[in-house]
């Protein structure tokens, strides 16, 4: 419309007036006004109005009445008009391109990607040339609407919400203040007692939801009820009634949840001796009272659309009861959080109050994570515990700066986000003091002394060296873990351990003393003696004493112990991983026993018997249960890899043991108590049961393609043993396969040590492949323990043979070696044993080394004890000797070895 008005005004201005006709008549040329019209059109073009410029020029040309120069008037303002037409047409082209670039339209021919940004940019270019292009303007508006739709809607929704709730501002503020006050009261209740209930994760969630719901409901009843009765808040109408109903429902549900939690704890087995029964009774009484108060308050609610006055009177009592219940439940949730912070202070150099870097805080956090946050470790024995309750953000260390530490400690104390605090004072390298507090109250403590914990002989050099290897922070971690276990659920992986000292001894033995088997067994035995219920230590000790026996009777005894352990721990919570380890050890032990000789010299069976087949099947069935339950963690995967070769051996044995099918009618089916008919158990042979267990455990067909290659050193070792016993006698091809798999297995030190004694590898150890790959060169005399300590001095004085050492008197030998007469006498006695009792054959120094390690000072006429004889045989077998040298050495020792 504005364009039309401007054009009309322009036409009026350009129309000839009456005086103009007179001027024409007088001879004035109308072309004299041409520069003004062109200038106006150029101004319109500069103002991005090419359409108006064209219209102005065309109007000027149409008003020509003088025939003086028609051709000149028809071509007036030609340059301006051409520029205006070009601008208009270019703008139209850009507008068309902008429309094509709008998302959702046809693909642009230019190859550019469709986007609102590109479309808007092209449309703005068109409007810069022709501000009157409607198509370009429409594209710009669409782009603006697309960009501002979400924020505009959000702003509109927020404005509507604010407008709707603005009348509720004062009541909501009062409710918020009430909830905050009750939350502060709950926080103040937390340190009142140390005996809070042990809640599972689900119970804590229910208690937390019910507690906060009760706090809100209690605050609402305490604040809004009197306000409604005093008419200070217009709570009438359907909205008021609905709000009151919501508040009452919250209080009712919280009471019901509290009663359910309390009853569950009161009727649970052993509840009579539970020191937290007070909480169950308090929750039950508060829950029942809250439910009754809510019901009475609901009856005070009037007819539809009205909040009756009796509600205001009843709300104070109901609100107080519901709020008290909320305080109890919220305080319980705050007090039972499993979060702890650790501070380690140093008492060295007289400074016993400040903490500094390097005092062990990070070390203790790491050890607690290893002991209580990692998945089960150890294939046959547990390495630590089977607890993972401390995973995630449960552990933290206080910062090192004094100011920051004070601020963090204050914040944690006020908020109550970290109930547990561990303080460790490191007095010196051999003494630690550990204090564990919960919400400011002492929950556990221990004074750790290296000598008192280990009880090693400090005068004996090897004992002192072993004691120095022990990390006392492992014992501190055990103190913290056992303290937490008394107050929290999720620590069933302790497997019966209740003494921190027993757990500390077990943890130290399996972590720091694995290189000293005797000390490891000593600490494990003491761990069991301190706490016989510690099944982690029981399994570790039984494994250390029985797993590596080489006689069938000993291996059978260990297998029977494992059978009893698996039977007595069936169904116990937290024993899953420990039972899997025991079942694997049982399978491996029974298989080894089939290839071990008897104590009386009986030959090995040479193949798996029915007991071994049943043990392998039981392990497969246990793994099938884990796979069906979706619990294929690292331990299960390792066991699946290790059991593959055991299955191959058991399947071959089951095939050989399988009787010929009897002729006649099949076995009658049996009927279960419900009346359903099931196939007879005798219809399935042991081999078929074994194959079915294999399919369920490993999810593959035993008759399928070749079994997968082992993925762990244990799997490689088991496969090597399979090849070593596959044929009798052991052929060269299987010996090479055994060597190949053992080469990849012995990266683990315990497997490298065991291959020299493993009964399944007895035939392989007689092969030259064994000596070439895993044999040991015979020791030199000065490499044996008593002489190795003084080897430089012995060489310097030319005492390099046992005869020369024996020829020197003890006082002179003590002077030459720079030691005590007692130590010189010990060295001379060892040389005398080698010179007088042992044959002068290659390998005799290795035999001497074994005898001295077992404190044998002379070879008895009746023969060596069984353990010493086994150790000598094991050492002789692994020596890199020629067959004739080995036979001569065995013949010379036969009288003592039996």
Walk me through this protein's architecture:
The protein has 898 residues and is mostly helical. The strands form two sheets. A five-stranded mixed sheet has the order 2-1-3-4-5. The protein has a two-stranded antiparallel sheet with strand order 6-7. Helix 14 (361-372) links the parallel strand 1 (340-346) and strand 2 (395-397). Helix 9 packs across helix 10 and helix 27 (713-724) packs antiparallel against helix 28.
In terms of topology, how is this protein built?
Blueprint: H1 2-14, H2 18-26, H3 34-46, H4 50-62, H5 70-74, H6 78-100, H7 116-129, H8 134-165, H9 169-189, H10 201-229, H11 238-267, H12 277-299, H13 309-335, E1 340-346, H14 361-372, E2 395-397, H15 402-415, E3 420-428, E4 431-438, E5 441-449, H16 450-454, H17 461-469, H18 472-485, H19 500-511, H20 517-530, H21 535-546, H22 552-568, H23 576-593, H24 610-628, H25 634-657, E6 670-671, E7 677-678, H26 686-698, H27 713-724, H28 732-745, H29 749-754, H30 762-765, H31 768-774, H32 785-788, H33 791-796, H34 802-806, H35 810-817, H36 821-836, H37 844-853, H38 866-878, H39 883-897
Parallel strand pairs: 1-2, 1-3
Antiparallel strand pairs: 3-4, 4-5, 6-7
Helix pairs in contact: 1-4, 3-4, 3-6, 4-6, 6-7, 6-8, 7-8, 9-10, 9-13, 10-11, 10-13, 11-12, 11-13, 12-13, 14-18, 18-19, 19-20, 20-21, 21-22, 22-23, 23-24, 23-25, 24-25, 24-26, 25-26, 25-27, 27-28, 35-36, 37-38, 38-39
């Amino acid at each position: 419309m504005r364009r039309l008005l401007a054009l009309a005004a322009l036409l009026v201005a350009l129309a000839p007036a009456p005086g103009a006709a007179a001027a024409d008549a007088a001879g004035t040329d109308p072309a004299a006004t041409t520069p003004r019209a062109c200038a106006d059109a150029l101004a319109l073009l500069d103002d991005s109005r090419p359409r108006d410029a064209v219209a102005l020029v065309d109007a000027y040309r149409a008003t020509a009445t003088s025939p003086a120069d028609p051709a000149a008037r028809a071509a007036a303002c030609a340059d301006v008009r051409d520029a205006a037409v070009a601008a208009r047409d270019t703008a139209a082209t850009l507008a068309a391109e902008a429309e094509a670039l709008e998302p959702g339209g046809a693909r642009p021919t230019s190859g550019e990607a469709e986007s609102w940004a590109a479309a808007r940019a092209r449309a703005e270019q068109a409007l810069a040339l022709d501000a009157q292009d409607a198509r370009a303007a429409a594209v710009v508006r669409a782009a603006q609407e697309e960009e501002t739709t979400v924020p505009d809607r959000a702003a509109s929704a927020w404005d509507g919400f604010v407008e709707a709730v603005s009348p509720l501002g004062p009541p909501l503020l009062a409710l918020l203040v009430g909830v905050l006050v009750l939350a502060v009261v709950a926080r103040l209740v937390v340190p009142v007692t140390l005996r809070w209930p042990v809640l599972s994760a689900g119970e804590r969630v229910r208690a937390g939801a019910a507690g906060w719901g009760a706090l809100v409901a209690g605050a609402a009843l305490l604040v809004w009820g009197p306000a409604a009765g005093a008419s200070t808040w217009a709570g009438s109408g359907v909205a008021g009634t609905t709000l009151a109903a919501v508040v009452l429902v919250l209080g009712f549900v919280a009471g019901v949840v509290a009663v359910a939690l309390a009853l569950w704890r009161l009727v649970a087995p052993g509840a009579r001796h539970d020191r937290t029964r007070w909480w169950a009774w308090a929750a039950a009484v508060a829950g029942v009272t809250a439910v009754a108060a809510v019901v009475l308050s609901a009856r005070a609610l009037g007819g539809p659309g009205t909040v009756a006055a009796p509600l205001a009177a009843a709300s104070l009592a109901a609100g107080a009861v519901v709020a008290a219940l909320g305080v109890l439940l919220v305080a319980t949730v705050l007090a039972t959080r499993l979060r702890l912070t650790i501070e380690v202070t140093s008492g060295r150099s007289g400074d016993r109050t400040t903490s500094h870097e390097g005092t062990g805080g990070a070390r203790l956090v790491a050890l607690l994570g290893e002991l209580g946050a990692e998945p089960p470790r150890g294939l046959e024995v547990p390495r630590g515990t089977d607890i993972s309750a401390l995973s995630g953000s449960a552990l933290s260390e206080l910062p090192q700066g004094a100011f920051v530490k004070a601020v963090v400690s204050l914040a944690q104390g006020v908020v109550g986000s970290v109930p547990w605090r561990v303080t460790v004072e490191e007095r010196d390298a051999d003494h630690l003091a550990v204090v564990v507090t919960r919400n400011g109250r002492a929950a556990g403590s221990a004074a750790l002394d290296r000598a008192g914990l280990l009880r090693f002989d400090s005068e004996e050099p090897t004992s002192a060296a072993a004691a120095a290897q022990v990390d006392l922070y492992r014992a501190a971690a055990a103190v913290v873990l056992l303290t937490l276990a008394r107050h929290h659920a999720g620590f069933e992986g302790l497997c019966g351990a209740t003494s921190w000292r027993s757990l500390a001894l077990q943890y130290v033995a399996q972590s720091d003393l694995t290189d000293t088997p005797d000390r490891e067994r000593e600490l494990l035995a003491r761990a069991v003696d301190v706490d016989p219920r510690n099944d982690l230590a029981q399994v570790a000790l039984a494994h250390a004493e029985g797993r590596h026996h080489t006689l069938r009777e000993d291996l059978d005894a260990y297998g029977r112990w494992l059978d009893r352990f698996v039977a007595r721990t069936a169904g116990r919570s937290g024993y899953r991983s420990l039972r899997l380890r025991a079942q694997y050890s049982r399978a491996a032990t029974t298989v080894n026993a089939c290839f071990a000789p008897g104590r009386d010299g009986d030959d090995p069976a040479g193949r798996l018997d029915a007991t071994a087949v049943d043990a392998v099947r039981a392990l497969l069935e246990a793994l099938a249960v884990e796979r069906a339950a979706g619990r294929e963690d690292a331990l299960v995967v390792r066991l699946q890899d290790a059991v593959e070769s055991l299955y191959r051996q058991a399947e071959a044995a089951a095939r050989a043991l399988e009787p010929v099918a009897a002729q006649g009618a099949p076995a009658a089916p049996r009927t279960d108590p419900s009346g359903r008919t099931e196939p007879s158990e005798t219809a399935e042979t042991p081999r078929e049961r074994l194959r079915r267990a294999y399919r369920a455990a490993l999810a593959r067909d035993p008759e399928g393609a070749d079994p997968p290659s082992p993925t762990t050193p244990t799997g490689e070792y088991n496969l090597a043993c399979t090849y070593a016993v596959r044929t009798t006698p052991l052929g060269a091809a299987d010996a090479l396969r055994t060597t190949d798999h053992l080469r990849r297995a012995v990266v683990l030190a315990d497997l490298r040590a065991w291959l020299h004694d493993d009964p399944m590898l007895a035939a392989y150890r007689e092969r030259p492949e064994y000596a070439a790959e895993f044999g040991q060169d015979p020791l030199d005399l000065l490499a044996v323990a008593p002489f190795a300590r003084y080897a430089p001095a012995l060489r310097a004085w030319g005492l390099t043979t046992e005869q020369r050492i024996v020829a020197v008197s003890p006082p002179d030998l003590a002077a030459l070696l720079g030691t005590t007469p007692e130590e010189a006498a010990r060295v001379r006695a060892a040389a005398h044993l080698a010179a007088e009792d042992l044959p002068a054959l290659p390998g005799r120094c290795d035999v001497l080394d074994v005898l001295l390690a077992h404190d044998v000072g002379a070879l008895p006429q009746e023969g060596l004890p069984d353990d010493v004889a086994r150790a000598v045989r094991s050492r002789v077998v692994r020596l890199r000797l020629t067959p004739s040298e080995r036979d001569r050495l065995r013949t010379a020792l036969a009288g003592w070895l039996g």
